Amino acid sequence: MHVLGGLSLIPTFTVSGLALGGVYALAATGLVLIYRVSGVLNFAHGAVAMFATFVAYQVSQVMGLPVLLGLLAAVVTGAVLGFCIEYFTIRPLMGRSPLTKVAVTIGWLLVLQTLAGLIWGDTSYHGAIRVVPQGGFKVPGIDLIIGYDRLTIFVVAMSLSLGIAALLRYTTLGAAMRAVADNPATARLWGINVNRVTAVSWMLGSAVAAVAGVLITPLINFDTYSLTIIVIDAFTAALIGRLVSLPMTLVGAVLLGCAQEWPTAFTSNGGFAQVSTFALVLIALAVLYRPSVGGAKLRTRVA
Amino acid sequence: MNIAARPRRTLVGAGIAVALIIPALLSPFDQDEAALAAITAMLVVSVVVLSGYVGQISFCQFSFAAIGAFTTGALVDGQGWSFWLAMPVGVVAAAAVGVLVGIPALRLTGLLLSVLTVAVALFFDRFVLATDTLPAFSGGSLQWHPHKPSLFGVQLTGEYGFYLFTFAMFLLVVLLVWNLRSGKAGRVLRAVRDSELAAATMGLNVTAWKLAAFGLSAGIAGLAGCLLAVANESVSAGSYDFLHSVQLLAIATVWGVGVLTAAALGGAFFVYGPELLAKTPLSAKWFSLILGAVLVAQLVYSPDGIIPKVAEDIRHALHRRRGDASMPPADAPVVEVA
After folding, report:
1. Whole-complex ipTM
2. Which residue of A8, A224, B35, B71 has the lowest C-beta tally within 10 Å?
3. Residue A45 CA: distances (Å) to CA of A40, A42, A110, B51, B195
Protein backbone atom coordinates (compact mmCIF):
# COMPACT_ATOMS: atom_id res chain seq x y z
CA MET A 1 0.00 0.00 0.00
CA HIS A 2 2.61 2.42 1.14
CA VAL A 3 4.91 1.52 -1.74
CA LEU A 4 2.10 1.96 -4.26
CA GLY A 5 1.24 5.32 -2.74
CA GLY A 6 4.92 6.17 -3.02
CA LEU A 7 5.09 5.17 -6.67
CA SER A 8 2.32 7.58 -7.62
CA LEU A 9 4.47 10.39 -6.20
CA ILE A 10 7.44 9.54 -8.42
CA PRO A 11 6.57 12.01 -11.24
CA THR A 12 6.31 14.88 -8.73
CA PHE A 13 9.65 14.02 -7.19
CA THR A 14 11.18 13.61 -10.63
CA VAL A 15 10.32 17.25 -11.32
CA SER A 16 12.11 18.28 -8.10
CA GLY A 17 14.95 15.91 -8.92
CA LEU A 18 15.44 17.47 -12.35
CA ALA A 19 15.59 20.96 -10.83
CA LEU A 20 18.05 19.75 -8.19
CA GLY A 21 20.07 17.99 -10.89
CA GLY A 22 20.20 21.18 -12.94
CA VAL A 23 21.69 23.05 -10.01
CA TYR A 24 24.21 20.26 -9.36
CA ALA A 25 25.14 20.36 -13.06
CA LEU A 26 25.86 24.07 -12.72
CA ALA A 27 27.97 23.64 -9.59
CA ALA A 28 29.81 20.68 -11.13
CA THR A 29 30.52 22.63 -14.33
CA GLY A 30 32.32 25.29 -12.30
CA LEU A 31 34.22 22.61 -10.38
CA VAL A 32 35.35 20.82 -13.56
CA LEU A 33 36.34 24.13 -15.18
CA ILE A 34 38.57 25.04 -12.24
CA TYR A 35 40.00 21.53 -11.95
CA ARG A 36 40.83 21.21 -15.63
CA VAL A 37 42.46 24.60 -16.07
CA SER A 38 44.34 24.92 -12.77
CA GLY A 39 44.60 21.28 -11.65
CA VAL A 40 43.11 22.12 -8.24
CA LEU A 41 40.31 20.04 -6.77
CA ASN A 42 38.42 22.88 -5.09
CA PHE A 43 36.94 21.62 -1.81
CA ALA A 44 35.86 25.21 -1.04
CA HIS A 45 33.56 25.28 -4.09
CA GLY A 46 30.43 24.75 -1.98
CA ALA A 47 31.62 27.27 0.60
CA VAL A 48 32.14 29.91 -2.09
CA ALA A 49 28.64 29.21 -3.44
CA MET A 50 27.26 29.39 0.10
CA PHE A 51 28.91 32.71 0.92
CA ALA A 52 27.80 34.31 -2.37
CA THR A 53 24.28 33.01 -1.80
CA PHE A 54 24.15 34.63 1.63
CA VAL A 55 25.25 37.91 0.06
CA ALA A 56 22.25 37.55 -2.25
CA TYR A 57 20.15 36.83 0.86
CA GLN A 58 21.47 39.98 2.48
CA VAL A 59 20.63 42.10 -0.57
CA SER A 60 17.23 40.63 -1.45
CA GLN A 61 15.75 39.44 1.87
CA VAL A 62 17.37 41.63 4.52
CA MET A 63 17.72 44.87 2.55
CA GLY A 64 14.57 44.20 0.51
CA LEU A 65 16.06 45.01 -2.89
CA PRO A 66 14.90 43.17 -6.05
CA VAL A 67 15.84 39.49 -6.22
CA LEU A 68 17.68 39.91 -9.51
CA LEU A 69 19.93 42.50 -7.87
CA GLY A 70 20.66 39.89 -5.18
CA LEU A 71 21.53 37.35 -7.86
CA LEU A 72 23.86 39.87 -9.46
CA ALA A 73 25.52 40.56 -6.09
CA ALA A 74 26.02 36.82 -5.63
CA VAL A 75 27.63 36.46 -9.06
CA VAL A 76 30.01 39.36 -8.34
CA THR A 77 30.84 37.95 -4.89
CA GLY A 78 31.51 34.53 -6.37
CA ALA A 79 33.81 35.94 -9.05
CA VAL A 80 35.70 38.10 -6.54
CA LEU A 81 36.15 35.17 -4.15
CA GLY A 82 37.33 32.94 -7.00
CA PHE A 83 39.83 35.59 -8.04
CA CYS A 84 41.13 36.10 -4.49
CA ILE A 85 41.56 32.37 -3.88
CA GLU A 86 43.47 31.92 -7.13
CA TYR A 87 45.53 35.12 -7.14
CA PHE A 88 46.57 35.28 -3.48
CA THR A 89 46.74 31.66 -2.38
CA ILE A 90 46.94 29.26 -5.33
CA ARG A 91 49.27 31.14 -7.68
CA PRO A 92 52.13 31.43 -5.11
CA LEU A 93 52.00 27.63 -4.77
CA MET A 94 52.80 26.97 -8.42
CA GLY A 95 54.82 23.79 -8.71
CA ARG A 96 53.76 22.47 -5.29
CA SER A 97 51.98 19.15 -4.84
CA PRO A 98 48.23 18.96 -5.54
CA LEU A 99 47.69 17.95 -1.90
CA THR A 100 49.09 21.30 -0.73
CA LYS A 101 46.68 23.15 -2.99
CA VAL A 102 43.79 21.01 -1.74
CA ALA A 103 44.79 21.94 1.82
CA VAL A 104 44.57 25.64 0.86
CA THR A 105 41.00 25.16 -0.33
CA ILE A 106 40.24 23.41 2.98
CA GLY A 107 41.45 26.55 4.77
CA TRP A 108 39.14 28.69 2.64
CA LEU A 109 36.26 26.34 3.39
CA LEU A 110 36.74 26.91 7.13
CA VAL A 111 37.14 30.67 6.74
CA LEU A 112 34.04 31.18 4.57
CA GLN A 113 31.90 28.72 6.54
CA THR A 114 32.74 30.31 9.89
CA LEU A 115 32.48 33.88 8.61
CA ALA A 116 29.02 33.22 7.15
CA GLY A 117 27.99 31.61 10.43
CA LEU A 118 29.17 34.69 12.36
CA ILE A 119 27.36 37.11 10.05
CA TRP A 120 24.12 35.31 9.24
CA GLY A 121 23.86 32.65 11.98
CA ASP A 122 24.55 28.92 11.79
CA THR A 123 21.23 27.28 12.37
CA SER A 124 18.50 29.85 12.19
CA TYR A 125 16.00 29.63 9.40
CA HIS A 126 16.63 31.81 6.35
CA GLY A 127 13.90 32.61 3.83
CA ALA A 128 14.62 31.07 0.43
CA ILE A 129 15.64 33.38 -2.41
CA ARG A 130 12.92 32.92 -5.02
CA VAL A 131 14.09 34.15 -8.39
CA VAL A 132 10.77 32.99 -9.85
CA PRO A 133 7.47 33.29 -7.94
CA GLN A 134 5.79 30.13 -6.70
CA GLY A 135 2.93 28.57 -8.61
CA GLY A 136 2.77 26.09 -11.44
CA PHE A 137 0.75 24.45 -14.15
CA LYS A 138 -0.98 21.10 -14.38
CA VAL A 139 0.24 18.63 -16.96
CA PRO A 140 -2.81 17.48 -18.93
CA GLY A 141 -3.63 13.77 -18.71
CA ILE A 142 -1.67 12.84 -15.60
CA ASP A 143 -1.82 13.99 -12.00
CA LEU A 144 1.26 16.21 -12.01
CA ILE A 145 1.87 19.85 -11.27
CA ILE A 146 5.08 21.43 -12.49
CA GLY A 147 6.19 24.48 -10.51
CA TYR A 148 7.35 27.48 -12.52
CA ASP A 149 10.29 27.82 -10.15
CA ARG A 150 11.44 24.25 -10.70
CA LEU A 151 11.04 24.56 -14.45
CA THR A 152 13.00 27.83 -14.52
CA ILE A 153 15.74 26.46 -12.30
CA PHE A 154 16.17 23.47 -14.59
CA VAL A 155 16.15 25.52 -17.80
CA VAL A 156 18.45 28.28 -16.50
CA ALA A 157 20.92 25.88 -14.91
CA MET A 158 21.07 23.59 -17.91
CA SER A 159 21.47 26.42 -20.44
CA LEU A 160 24.23 28.01 -18.33
CA SER A 161 26.09 24.68 -18.13
CA LEU A 162 25.70 24.07 -21.84
CA GLY A 163 26.74 27.68 -22.46
CA ILE A 164 30.00 27.08 -20.63
CA ALA A 165 30.58 23.85 -22.52
CA ALA A 166 30.02 25.82 -25.77
CA LEU A 167 32.34 28.59 -24.58
CA LEU A 168 35.09 26.04 -24.03
CA ARG A 169 34.54 24.49 -27.42
CA TYR A 170 33.88 27.42 -29.75
CA THR A 171 35.52 30.60 -28.42
CA THR A 172 39.13 31.79 -28.35
CA LEU A 173 39.02 32.04 -24.57
CA GLY A 174 37.73 28.46 -24.43
CA ALA A 175 40.50 27.27 -26.71
CA ALA A 176 43.04 29.07 -24.48
CA MET A 177 41.53 27.37 -21.42
CA ARG A 178 41.75 23.96 -23.05
CA ALA A 179 45.34 24.67 -24.07
CA VAL A 180 46.29 25.60 -20.50
CA ALA A 181 44.48 22.51 -19.21
CA ASP A 182 46.42 20.25 -21.56
CA ASN A 183 49.86 21.75 -21.04
CA PRO A 184 50.53 25.15 -19.39
CA ALA A 185 54.14 25.32 -20.64
CA THR A 186 53.17 24.78 -24.28
CA ALA A 187 50.25 27.18 -23.92
CA ARG A 188 52.67 29.84 -22.71
CA LEU A 189 54.89 29.25 -25.74
CA TRP A 190 51.87 29.92 -27.95
CA GLY A 191 51.53 33.34 -26.37
CA ILE A 192 48.66 32.50 -24.04
CA ASN A 193 48.67 34.45 -20.77
CA VAL A 194 48.42 31.37 -18.54
CA ASN A 195 47.98 33.35 -15.32
CA ARG A 196 45.11 35.36 -16.76
CA VAL A 197 43.36 32.31 -18.21
CA THR A 198 43.69 30.49 -14.88
CA ALA A 199 42.30 33.48 -12.98
CA VAL A 200 39.39 33.77 -15.41
CA SER A 201 38.56 30.09 -15.01
CA TRP A 202 38.45 30.47 -11.21
CA MET A 203 36.26 33.58 -11.48
CA LEU A 204 33.91 31.99 -14.00
CA GLY A 205 33.74 28.69 -12.12
CA SER A 206 33.02 30.43 -8.79
CA ALA A 207 30.46 32.83 -10.31
CA VAL A 208 28.61 29.85 -11.78
CA ALA A 209 28.71 28.16 -8.38
CA ALA A 210 27.16 31.32 -6.90
CA VAL A 211 24.23 31.11 -9.34
CA ALA A 212 23.82 27.44 -8.40
CA GLY A 213 23.76 28.39 -4.72
CA VAL A 214 21.05 31.03 -5.19
CA LEU A 215 18.91 28.74 -7.35
CA ILE A 216 19.08 25.82 -4.93
CA THR A 217 17.79 27.72 -1.86
CA PRO A 218 14.09 26.85 -2.40
CA LEU A 219 14.98 23.16 -2.81
CA ILE A 220 17.04 22.46 0.34
CA ASN A 221 17.50 23.67 3.93
CA PHE A 222 18.86 27.18 3.50
CA ASP A 223 21.66 27.21 6.07
CA THR A 224 25.44 27.56 5.89
CA TYR A 225 26.26 23.87 6.34
CA SER A 226 23.77 22.47 3.80
CA LEU A 227 25.06 24.82 1.11
CA THR A 228 28.73 24.21 1.88
CA ILE A 229 28.33 20.47 1.47
CA ILE A 230 26.79 20.70 -2.00
CA VAL A 231 30.45 20.42 -2.97
CA ILE A 232 30.05 16.64 -2.60
CA ASP A 233 27.06 16.66 -4.97
CA ALA A 234 29.13 18.65 -7.47
CA PHE A 235 32.00 16.18 -7.00
CA THR A 236 29.69 13.24 -7.59
CA ALA A 237 28.40 14.66 -10.86
CA ALA A 238 31.93 15.61 -11.90
CA LEU A 239 33.19 12.10 -11.12
CA ILE A 240 30.53 10.62 -13.38
CA GLY A 241 31.97 12.91 -16.05
CA ARG A 242 35.45 11.61 -15.08
CA LEU A 243 36.34 15.23 -14.19
CA VAL A 244 36.78 16.03 -17.89
CA SER A 245 33.57 15.51 -19.84
CA LEU A 246 31.01 18.29 -19.34
CA PRO A 247 28.15 16.47 -21.15
CA MET A 248 28.62 13.37 -18.97
CA THR A 249 28.78 15.65 -15.93
CA LEU A 250 25.34 17.05 -16.82
CA VAL A 251 23.93 13.52 -17.19
CA GLY A 252 25.49 12.57 -13.87
CA ALA A 253 24.06 15.65 -12.16
CA VAL A 254 20.51 14.95 -13.34
CA LEU A 255 20.86 11.30 -12.33
CA LEU A 256 22.06 12.40 -8.88
CA GLY A 257 19.25 14.93 -8.44
CA CYS A 258 16.60 12.31 -9.23
CA ALA A 259 18.30 9.61 -7.15
CA GLN A 260 18.23 12.00 -4.18
CA GLU A 261 14.58 12.93 -4.58
CA TRP A 262 13.03 9.51 -5.33
CA PRO A 263 13.60 7.96 -1.87
CA THR A 264 11.53 10.83 -0.41
CA ALA A 265 8.47 9.21 -2.03
CA PHE A 266 8.84 6.16 0.21
CA THR A 267 10.39 7.35 3.46
CA SER A 268 10.38 10.38 5.69
CA ASN A 269 14.07 9.84 6.55
CA GLY A 270 15.86 12.58 4.60
CA GLY A 271 19.17 10.78 5.12
CA PHE A 272 18.41 8.47 2.22
CA ALA A 273 19.38 11.28 -0.17
CA GLN A 274 22.91 10.89 1.21
CA VAL A 275 22.75 7.12 0.59
CA SER A 276 22.08 7.85 -3.10
CA THR A 277 25.04 10.24 -3.25
CA PHE A 278 27.32 7.73 -1.55
CA ALA A 279 26.18 4.92 -3.86
CA LEU A 280 26.73 7.04 -6.98
CA VAL A 281 30.22 8.08 -5.82
CA LEU A 282 31.12 4.42 -5.27
CA ILE A 283 29.67 3.37 -8.63
CA ALA A 284 31.43 6.21 -10.43
CA LEU A 285 34.76 5.38 -8.80
CA ALA A 286 34.38 1.63 -9.30
CA VAL A 287 33.11 1.60 -12.88
CA LEU A 288 34.62 4.63 -14.56
CA TYR A 289 38.22 4.51 -13.36
CA ARG A 290 40.46 1.79 -14.68
CA PRO A 291 43.15 0.58 -12.31
CA SER A 292 46.80 1.11 -13.10
CA VAL A 293 50.00 1.13 -11.07
CA GLY A 294 49.63 3.61 -8.26
CA GLY A 295 45.98 4.33 -8.98
CA ALA A 296 43.80 5.61 -11.78
CA LYS A 297 45.07 7.83 -14.52
CA LEU A 298 42.75 10.54 -15.76
CA ARG A 299 42.56 11.31 -19.42
CA THR A 300 43.73 14.78 -20.27
CA ARG A 301 41.09 15.85 -22.74
CA VAL A 302 38.69 18.70 -22.07
CA ALA A 303 34.96 18.70 -22.71
CA MET B 1 74.72 8.19 17.33
CA ASN B 2 72.17 10.82 16.46
CA ILE B 3 73.31 14.17 17.87
CA ALA B 4 69.74 15.37 18.21
CA ALA B 5 68.61 12.31 20.22
CA ARG B 6 69.61 13.45 23.71
CA PRO B 7 68.05 16.94 23.70
CA ARG B 8 64.97 15.40 22.14
CA ARG B 9 64.69 12.83 24.92
CA THR B 10 65.03 15.60 27.52
CA LEU B 11 62.38 17.65 25.73
CA VAL B 12 59.92 14.75 25.55
CA GLY B 13 60.54 13.97 29.23
CA ALA B 14 59.98 17.61 30.17
CA GLY B 15 56.83 17.69 28.03
CA ILE B 16 55.41 14.63 29.80
CA ALA B 17 56.26 16.10 33.20
CA VAL B 18 54.50 19.36 32.29
CA ALA B 19 51.49 17.42 30.99
CA LEU B 20 51.30 15.52 34.31
CA ILE B 21 51.88 18.43 36.70
CA ILE B 22 50.07 21.41 35.18
CA PRO B 23 46.61 19.77 35.00
CA ALA B 24 46.94 18.72 38.67
CA LEU B 25 46.97 22.42 39.59
CA LEU B 26 44.02 23.37 37.40
CA SER B 27 40.34 23.64 38.26
CA PRO B 28 38.17 20.51 37.74
CA PHE B 29 36.66 22.12 34.63
CA ASP B 30 40.09 22.68 33.09
CA GLN B 31 41.09 19.13 34.04
CA ASP B 32 38.10 17.89 32.04
CA GLU B 33 39.29 20.03 29.17
CA ALA B 34 42.78 18.55 29.52
CA ALA B 35 41.28 15.07 29.10
CA LEU B 36 39.54 16.28 25.94
CA ALA B 37 42.86 17.71 24.73
CA ALA B 38 44.59 14.34 25.23
CA ILE B 39 41.78 12.61 23.30
CA THR B 40 41.91 15.18 20.50
CA ALA B 41 45.67 14.69 20.38
CA MET B 42 44.96 11.02 19.63
CA LEU B 43 42.76 12.11 16.73
CA VAL B 44 45.59 14.29 15.44
CA VAL B 45 47.89 11.23 15.65
CA SER B 46 45.37 9.35 13.50
CA VAL B 47 45.69 12.11 10.89
CA VAL B 48 49.49 12.02 11.15
CA VAL B 49 49.46 8.27 10.42
CA LEU B 50 47.34 8.72 7.31
CA SER B 51 48.39 12.11 5.92
CA GLY B 52 51.93 12.38 7.20
CA TYR B 53 53.07 8.80 6.67
CA VAL B 54 51.03 7.72 3.64
CA GLY B 55 50.17 11.09 2.09
CA GLN B 56 46.43 10.47 2.11
CA ILE B 57 43.91 13.19 3.00
CA SER B 58 40.91 11.89 4.93
CA PHE B 59 37.80 13.95 5.60
CA CYS B 60 36.16 11.25 7.71
CA GLN B 61 38.35 10.85 10.83
CA PHE B 62 35.45 11.98 13.01
CA SER B 63 33.25 9.35 11.34
CA PHE B 64 35.73 6.70 12.53
CA ALA B 65 35.65 8.32 15.97
CA ALA B 66 31.83 8.23 15.81
CA ILE B 67 31.93 4.46 15.29
CA GLY B 68 33.93 4.10 18.50
CA ALA B 69 31.76 6.58 20.38
CA PHE B 70 28.39 5.19 19.30
CA THR B 71 29.52 1.58 19.79
CA THR B 72 30.52 2.51 23.33
CA GLY B 73 27.23 4.33 23.85
CA ALA B 74 25.10 1.50 22.47
CA LEU B 75 26.94 -1.25 24.38
CA VAL B 76 27.53 0.52 27.71
CA ASP B 77 24.35 2.58 28.02
CA GLY B 78 22.09 0.44 25.80
CA GLN B 79 23.23 -3.11 26.64
CA GLY B 80 24.82 -2.58 30.05
CA TRP B 81 28.26 -3.83 29.01
CA SER B 82 31.43 -2.89 30.84
CA PHE B 83 33.37 -0.08 29.18
CA TRP B 84 36.46 -2.31 29.09
CA LEU B 85 34.63 -4.79 26.86
CA ALA B 86 32.92 -2.15 24.73
CA MET B 87 36.13 -0.24 24.02
CA PRO B 88 37.93 -3.04 22.10
CA VAL B 89 34.74 -3.71 20.11
CA GLY B 90 34.55 -0.02 19.17
CA VAL B 91 38.22 0.11 18.17
CA VAL B 92 37.98 -3.05 16.05
CA ALA B 93 34.76 -1.85 14.39
CA ALA B 94 36.33 1.52 13.53
CA ALA B 95 39.48 -0.15 12.18
CA ALA B 96 37.37 -2.51 10.05
CA VAL B 97 35.40 0.37 8.55
CA GLY B 98 38.71 2.17 7.99
CA VAL B 99 39.99 -0.76 5.92
CA LEU B 100 36.69 -0.80 3.98
CA VAL B 101 37.04 2.90 3.18
CA GLY B 102 40.63 2.27 2.13
CA ILE B 103 39.72 -0.51 -0.31
CA PRO B 104 39.01 1.90 -3.18
CA ALA B 105 42.68 2.86 -2.71
CA LEU B 106 43.29 -0.26 -4.80
CA ARG B 107 42.24 1.76 -7.81
CA LEU B 108 42.39 5.45 -6.99
CA THR B 109 44.94 8.19 -6.62
CA GLY B 110 45.01 10.20 -3.42
CA LEU B 111 42.82 13.08 -4.55
CA LEU B 112 39.91 10.94 -5.70
CA LEU B 113 40.10 8.89 -2.54
CA SER B 114 39.78 12.06 -0.49
CA VAL B 115 36.58 12.87 -2.41
CA LEU B 116 35.33 9.45 -1.36
CA THR B 117 36.11 10.24 2.29
CA VAL B 118 33.91 13.36 2.04
CA ALA B 119 31.08 11.13 0.82
CA VAL B 120 31.75 8.72 3.70
CA ALA B 121 31.71 11.56 6.24
CA LEU B 122 28.37 12.90 4.99
CA PHE B 123 26.95 9.37 4.70
CA PHE B 124 27.63 8.86 8.41
CA ASP B 125 26.72 12.38 9.47
CA ARG B 126 23.43 12.59 7.58
CA PHE B 127 22.31 8.95 7.37
CA VAL B 128 23.89 6.44 9.74
CA LEU B 129 23.85 8.76 12.75
CA ALA B 130 20.46 10.34 11.95
CA THR B 131 18.06 9.68 14.83
CA ASP B 132 15.51 7.66 12.85
CA THR B 133 17.88 5.47 10.80
CA LEU B 134 19.40 3.02 13.29
CA PRO B 135 18.09 3.87 16.78
CA ALA B 136 19.86 0.82 18.24
CA PHE B 137 23.18 2.37 17.17
CA SER B 138 22.56 6.10 17.22
CA GLY B 139 20.53 6.06 20.44
CA GLY B 140 17.56 7.74 18.73
CA SER B 141 16.37 11.09 19.98
CA LEU B 142 17.28 10.27 23.60
CA GLN B 143 21.03 9.91 22.86
CA TRP B 144 23.42 7.63 24.80
CA HIS B 145 24.85 8.62 28.17
CA PRO B 146 27.63 6.14 29.03
CA HIS B 147 29.25 6.59 32.45
CA LYS B 148 32.94 6.86 33.17
CA PRO B 149 34.50 3.46 33.93
CA SER B 150 36.43 2.22 36.95
CA LEU B 151 39.93 0.78 36.71
CA PHE B 152 41.07 -1.96 39.17
CA GLY B 153 38.27 -0.92 41.47
CA VAL B 154 39.18 2.78 41.30
CA GLN B 155 36.41 4.94 39.86
CA LEU B 156 37.77 7.17 37.11
CA THR B 157 35.08 9.74 37.79
CA GLY B 158 37.50 12.24 39.36
CA GLU B 159 38.57 14.80 36.77
CA TYR B 160 42.31 14.43 37.34
CA GLY B 161 42.11 10.63 37.49
CA PHE B 162 40.26 10.48 34.21
CA TYR B 163 42.75 12.88 32.65
CA LEU B 164 45.64 10.64 33.73
CA PHE B 165 43.87 7.69 32.11
CA THR B 166 43.34 9.50 28.78
CA PHE B 167 46.90 10.84 28.84
CA ALA B 168 48.24 7.32 29.42
CA MET B 169 46.20 6.08 26.46
CA PHE B 170 47.59 8.93 24.35
CA LEU B 171 51.16 8.00 25.31
CA LEU B 172 50.44 4.35 24.47
CA VAL B 173 49.15 5.32 21.02
CA VAL B 174 52.13 7.58 20.37
CA LEU B 175 54.52 4.83 21.50
CA LEU B 176 52.83 2.33 19.18
CA VAL B 177 52.95 4.65 16.19
CA TRP B 178 56.50 5.78 16.98
CA ASN B 179 57.67 2.17 17.19
CA LEU B 180 56.02 1.32 13.90
CA ARG B 181 57.58 4.35 12.32
CA SER B 182 61.12 3.60 13.37
CA GLY B 183 60.81 -0.03 12.24
CA LYS B 184 60.20 -1.63 8.88
CA ALA B 185 56.60 -0.40 8.68
CA GLY B 186 57.76 3.21 8.92
CA ARG B 187 60.27 2.82 6.12
CA VAL B 188 57.70 1.12 3.89
CA LEU B 189 55.04 3.76 4.55
CA ARG B 190 57.44 6.60 3.79
CA ALA B 191 58.46 4.87 0.58
CA VAL B 192 54.78 4.56 -0.37
CA ARG B 193 54.18 8.23 0.43
CA ASP B 194 57.16 9.47 -1.55
CA SER B 195 56.55 7.40 -4.67
CA GLU B 196 54.03 4.61 -5.00
CA LEU B 197 55.53 3.63 -8.30
CA ALA B 198 59.03 3.26 -6.86
CA ALA B 199 57.69 1.38 -3.84
CA ALA B 200 55.80 -1.03 -6.11
CA THR B 201 58.95 -1.52 -8.21
CA MET B 202 60.83 -2.47 -5.04
CA GLY B 203 58.37 -5.34 -4.64
CA LEU B 204 56.33 -3.76 -1.85
CA ASN B 205 52.63 -4.51 -1.76
CA VAL B 206 51.57 -0.87 -1.79
CA THR B 207 47.87 -1.66 -1.50
CA ALA B 208 48.20 -3.86 1.57
CA TRP B 209 50.36 -1.29 3.35
CA LYS B 210 47.93 1.50 2.52
CA LEU B 211 45.02 -0.56 3.82
CA ALA B 212 46.97 -1.29 7.00
CA ALA B 213 47.59 2.45 7.46
CA PHE B 214 43.88 3.13 6.99
CA GLY B 215 43.01 0.45 9.54
CA LEU B 216 45.53 1.76 12.08
CA SER B 217 44.44 5.37 11.61
CA ALA B 218 40.75 4.51 11.89
CA GLY B 219 41.45 2.30 14.92
CA ILE B 220 43.20 5.18 16.71
CA ALA B 221 40.35 7.53 15.81
CA GLY B 222 37.87 4.90 17.03
CA LEU B 223 39.72 4.62 20.35
CA ALA B 224 39.57 8.39 20.71
CA GLY B 225 35.82 8.16 19.99
CA CYS B 226 35.32 5.54 22.75
CA LEU B 227 37.09 7.81 25.23
CA LEU B 228 35.21 10.88 23.99
CA ALA B 229 31.91 9.10 24.67
CA VAL B 230 32.72 8.56 28.36
CA ALA B 231 34.58 11.87 28.74
CA ASN B 232 31.45 13.80 27.73
CA GLU B 233 29.15 11.11 29.19
CA SER B 234 26.96 11.71 26.14
CA VAL B 235 27.15 10.90 22.44
CA SER B 236 25.49 13.15 19.87
CA ALA B 237 25.85 13.09 16.09
CA GLY B 238 26.54 16.82 15.85
CA SER B 239 29.97 16.39 17.48
CA TYR B 240 31.16 13.99 14.79
CA ASP B 241 30.23 15.77 11.56
CA PHE B 242 32.18 16.63 8.41
CA LEU B 243 33.19 20.08 9.64
CA HIS B 244 34.89 18.60 12.72
CA SER B 245 36.96 16.38 10.44
CA VAL B 246 37.86 19.42 8.33
CA GLN B 247 38.99 21.31 11.45
CA LEU B 248 41.04 18.33 12.59
CA LEU B 249 42.74 18.12 9.22
CA ALA B 250 43.46 21.86 9.34
CA ILE B 251 45.00 21.60 12.82
CA ALA B 252 47.16 18.63 11.89
CA THR B 253 48.37 20.46 8.78
CA VAL B 254 49.11 23.70 10.62
CA TRP B 255 51.15 21.96 13.32
CA GLY B 256 53.00 19.78 10.83
CA VAL B 257 51.35 16.68 9.52
CA GLY B 258 54.47 14.49 9.46
CA VAL B 259 55.40 15.06 13.07
CA LEU B 260 54.16 13.24 16.19
CA THR B 261 55.16 16.06 18.55
CA ALA B 262 52.66 18.21 16.69
CA ALA B 263 49.84 15.96 17.87
CA ALA B 264 50.01 16.84 21.56
CA LEU B 265 50.20 20.56 20.86
CA GLY B 266 47.49 20.29 18.20
CA GLY B 267 45.18 18.59 20.70
CA ALA B 268 45.75 21.28 23.32
CA PHE B 269 45.27 23.99 20.68
CA PHE B 270 41.98 22.45 19.49
CA VAL B 271 40.52 22.43 23.01
CA TYR B 272 42.03 25.53 24.63
CA GLY B 273 42.08 27.75 21.51
CA PRO B 274 38.30 28.41 21.52
CA GLU B 275 38.39 28.90 25.31
CA LEU B 276 41.13 31.50 25.13
CA LEU B 277 39.23 33.27 22.34
CA ALA B 278 36.12 33.37 24.53
CA LYS B 279 38.11 35.47 27.03
CA THR B 280 38.93 38.04 24.30
CA PRO B 281 36.46 40.45 22.63
CA LEU B 282 36.01 37.77 19.95
CA SER B 283 33.98 34.67 20.73
CA ALA B 284 34.89 30.97 20.62
CA LYS B 285 33.14 30.82 17.25
CA TRP B 286 36.03 32.73 15.69
CA PHE B 287 38.32 29.77 16.28
CA SER B 288 37.77 27.97 12.99
CA LEU B 289 37.89 31.25 11.06
CA ILE B 290 41.33 31.98 12.49
CA LEU B 291 42.34 28.35 12.05
CA GLY B 292 41.40 28.43 8.36
CA ALA B 293 43.19 31.75 7.81
CA VAL B 294 46.32 30.48 9.58
CA LEU B 295 46.20 27.31 7.48
CA VAL B 296 46.05 29.26 4.21
CA ALA B 297 48.73 31.76 5.26
CA GLN B 298 51.02 29.03 6.54
CA LEU B 299 50.69 26.92 3.39
CA VAL B 300 51.59 29.92 1.27
CA TYR B 301 54.56 30.98 3.42
CA SER B 302 55.84 27.86 5.20
CA PRO B 303 54.28 24.69 3.74
CA ASP B 304 55.87 22.19 6.19
CA GLY B 305 53.93 23.25 9.27
CA ILE B 306 54.82 25.20 12.41
CA ILE B 307 56.69 22.54 14.39
CA PRO B 308 59.11 21.45 11.63
CA LYS B 309 59.68 25.14 10.78
CA VAL B 310 60.49 26.11 14.37
CA ALA B 311 62.64 23.02 14.91
CA GLU B 312 64.53 23.83 11.75
CA ASP B 313 65.04 27.46 12.82
CA ILE B 314 66.31 26.41 16.25
CA ARG B 315 68.71 23.87 14.74
CA HIS B 316 70.11 26.48 12.42
CA ALA B 317 70.46 29.03 15.21
CA LEU B 318 72.36 26.45 17.30
CA HIS B 319 74.41 25.44 14.32
CA ARG B 320 75.44 29.01 13.57
CA ARG B 321 76.52 29.57 17.20
CA ARG B 322 78.55 26.38 17.44
CA GLY B 323 79.91 26.69 13.94
CA ASP B 324 79.30 22.96 13.52
CA ALA B 325 80.24 22.14 9.95
CA SER B 326 78.48 18.75 10.05
CA MET B 327 75.01 20.33 10.13
CA PRO B 328 73.14 20.62 6.83
CA PRO B 329 73.02 24.01 5.08
CA ALA B 330 69.87 26.11 5.35
CA ASP B 331 68.55 25.10 1.96
CA ALA B 332 68.93 21.34 2.54
CA PRO B 333 65.72 19.31 2.54
CA VAL B 334 63.90 19.31 5.86
CA VAL B 335 64.93 16.38 8.05
CA GLU B 336 62.20 14.60 9.97
CA VAL B 337 62.06 15.75 13.54
CA ALA B 338 60.16 13.00 15.33
Report:
1. 0.86
2. A8
3. 11, 6, 12, 22, 29
